[in-house]
## 1
Amino acid sequence: MLLRQVLAFIVIGLLALSGIGPAAAQTWPTRPVTMVVPFPPGGGTDVLGRIVAQKMSEILHQQVIVENVGGAGGMIGSARVAHATPDGYQFVLGSRADAINQTLYKKPAYNLLEDLVPIVLIADQPTILITPNEFPANTLPEFIDHVKKNQATLKVASAGAGSTGMIDCQLLNAAIGVNVTHVPYRGGGPAAIGLVAGEVSAMFGGGSLVPTVQSGKVRGLASTGTVRNPATPDLPTIAELYPGYEALIWHGLFVPAGTPQPIIERLRSAIAEVLVEPEFKKRLADSGSGEPYIVTPDEFTARIRGDYEKYGKLIRSIGVKVD
């Protein structure tokens, strides 16, 4: 009995010192919170993050500050949150890149399955294969034929080494049996600018590029889902030519391991309110991210583990590693 009392006093003392005891969790948040977007401004993750942050600020009655912490295919920003104080005042808008980085990098800066706790899945979207309007191919079959004949001179862009765009390029290379040179940029926005300028021949882009495709500034050829994207219904899926091909980008919120459960539930509740708002759903659709993807925490965790295994296997098979 005495031992239990001593342990109880120790736990209470630690909670009091950390400021994240039960009372603190119930009143959270009492000041602005930070959503880390682990990519530079202008890309799909950034666009989605700002939509979410605006609505969360209204629901939490505290400002949700978006802070772009780019680098290493999203790993630097996610690592910052993984090692942050687990008090709910920093969380990260994670993505499929987090699952990819665990195998892609020789020494990942954090353990996705241990250092971060998944809160909620927000969106699940296909990417789009795009080219400059001057590219000599108007359809996916024409594109594949041209690439097979000219792979030695072509270049494809991505948001950086280890980015989802790079992995999508590798998936397409494997599907059609080519090896096109990869050019990493510092984010999806700069990559798109390079494509429009003619520096590269193609790239895979997320929802932020849907308006660019719709405006005719670039040519969309295909999407990477198993069904056509409602935002670009005229674009075929790569799976229509290569059954089984799928490369979806999920986005969800993560907090550091050790964050008190009441704070996790408050965050989860706030996002649940965001996801059902008609205005949010419209903005999500307009950005190319489709419908909010509502799943249970266990289903989200299973999705993360599934991508961890899927892309780990792909990366090991093609022998790609980043220092």
## 2
Amino acid sequence: MNVMKKPAVSIVIPAYNEEKWMRNCLESIAKQDIAKQIEVLIVDDDSEDDTVKIARSFSKKINVRIVRNGTHDAEIGKKKGLDAAKGKYFMYFDADMEFADTDWFSKNIELLEKEKETVGVLASFKPKKTQNPLTRCISYDVFQRDPIFKAFTPNIDDTIIKEENGYKICRFSEGKIPCQSLCLYRLEIIKKIFGKDPYLMDNDVPVRLVKKGYTVFGFRTDIGIYHYILENLGELFKKRMRGVLKTYMKHLHKREYKWFNLEDKKNIILMGAWVLYANLLFPGMFVGIYKAFKYRDTCLLYYPIINMVSTDALIFGFLKSKKGVNSLLKV
């Protein structure tokens, strides 16, 4: 195993039975132009396949460490990885992701070194021709959001305070934080704020940072990430249901990122209108056709189907939760 006294970057990858994706994910890290300055912490949740074996096979290419999770909770796994991280910069990453560019880290570190006020650099996603049409369709959104998330979350363009050659500087405020937490952070700051927490809750990270006064983030779209998020519509439905029931509603009283404010009756009306829009299909079909011509990619014709399945899964999951029903009754 490669030994580094002080790695530039620590990448934490929570993993459970990820043998299908792990090799390509780690290969994209090994190809980085600063690969020798990166440590990779695989936080394994007692995988029953070759996930760990594949990870260890990369020990001659990159610095790989295995950290045991054992809780079957990815958010706790991320925190275990944070506790073990030694780099100057830190990010968590999914096993089914790949870095699309070999200079992803060097460019983002250059930004962080130049823009001292920034707490991190947000990642952006890219579509890849070899991805299946469903994944490619939502990858045209810079944060890989389903249409419903894009409609009800803040637009990062509204937070930009400065534009430089190749990147943007954004200032966030409470209630004006984009739905994205995949980011290259300054490790010292993240450990200071989340050091005593039992878990690292994805989109809550930027919210906590903003509340503590760390409001400036970098953002660039000239480099990106490929995320193989979907294989079929059934998987989309299950993932959105799981996100509502096991991630969002389970920790609702602790969540700091609220992408939909139920206390505002106008939002309830808007959501009702969105559900109608999504299930009629025809309005979304026109949007999909427009996007297909704009990007010259027929995968975007899946837009209305993805919109309907994702919307209905989120609504169904919300109504299935007692917390969700109770919150509606209070409105």
## 3
Amino acid sequence: MQVLVSAAAGIRDKALLLTLAKTGLRRGELLALQAHDIDITRCIIRVPAKAKRSNRLAFMDPELQAALRMYLIWRKPRARTSWLWISKRGGRIHKDYAGKMIAELGEELGYHDPGGPLCSKLTPHCFRHWFTTWLFRAGMEPEYIKWLRGDSLRAEAWQIYNHIDGDQVRQEYLRCIPAIMQESQSKNITVRVQTCI
């Protein structure tokens, strides 16, 4: 993930990759974000309602907060739309932009084989797998991971009474989500990061 984000051209692509990696959003959820869905101060992302999504909140760690802050600064003078992810001309990015950018970047780095089987392709969905795997390996409760991913929380009878507290999930998220950028690279996108706790 460090290699991918480091190789991305410009703050928009770096912020987009970090958002996928640090939130586990589906491609459609990422593209449905509007600028007002990003709350930099509170370190939250309000995810628009989608049929597959049960939870409508995603959290930011300081690294994602810094990248999104820099992206919003870049975006402000260019934007001609309320959609979060814009082209260099200021309109909404094409629905295939993220997948194409990730595939091209992955191919350059040897992580994507366009003619190979699905397991040898790098797609936006791979970032959802990375997010889930890292949280699980860091010891996060499976119910919290499901909550963060927006998966259905259908449960056995005893679990129905175990309500998930968003603030507790946020603390676990901040404990478990890894830093992606190397320290020297993070300094290039950091602008007075506020703490997200």
